Amino acid sequence: MDLATAIRKYLGRNVNFAPGPDNEVWLRDDGNGPYIYEWNITEKTKPTKSTIINAWNQSKLDYAKLKKTNILKHKKKLELLDFARIYTTIKNEYDTIKNQIDMANTEQEIEDIII
Q: Spelled out in words, what is the top-level CATH class assigned to the domain 3-114?
C-alpha cells in the first residue's frame, strides 16, 4: 500500500509531503513500514490505520472503474471507426454503381450493372 496515495485519497486533494515550513504531512519509515510521523492538516483529523486502508481500497476501486471506463470508451471508438469504414465502403460501391447507371444507354445495360 502506498501511504502517500492513501492520504491523498483520504483528503481528496494533493498533499505537501516535502520537508520544510509548508509541510502538511511527514511520513517516516523506521524499518517497520511507513507511518504518519507528523500531521499538520487542520481540515481533517489524522486518519487511523483502518481509515487509511479504506482510503487505499477506495483508490484501487476508483482506478479499476476508471480503467474499465477507458476500455469501454476505446472499444466504442473502435466500433465507430469500424462503422465508418463499412459506411465508406458501401458508399463508394453505391457511387460506383450510380455512375455506371448514369452512363448506361439502355435498360439492358442497367440490368447488367445491377445483377
A: alpha beta
Q: Under a CB-based contact definition with an 8 Å cutoff, are residues 37 and 28 in contact?
A: yes
pLDDT of residue 111: 77
Q: Three cell numbers at 45?
A: 483529523
If DSSP codes are grouped into helix, strand and coil, which group holds residue 1? coil
Put simply, whether the predicted model's pTM sits higher than 0.70 gets the answer no
Q: Give residue 113's pLDDT.
A: 75
What are the angstrom distances between the C-alpha of 33 and each of 29, 30, 45, 56? Answer: 5, 7, 21, 15
> Which residues are within 8 A (CB) of 3 and not within 5 positions of it... i.e. 6 or more apart?
27, 34, 35, 36, 52
For the segment 23-44, what is each residue's pLDDT rounded down to a tens digit?
999 999 999 889 999 999 999 9
Contacts of 19 (CB under 8 A, 6+ apart): 26
Q: Is 111 exposed, middle or buried (0-12, 13-18, 19+ CB in 10 A)?
A: exposed
Q: Please report, for residues 11, 21, 52, 114, the alpha-carbon distance to residue 45 in angstroms, rounded to integers and kept in the order given.
A: 10, 20, 12, 78
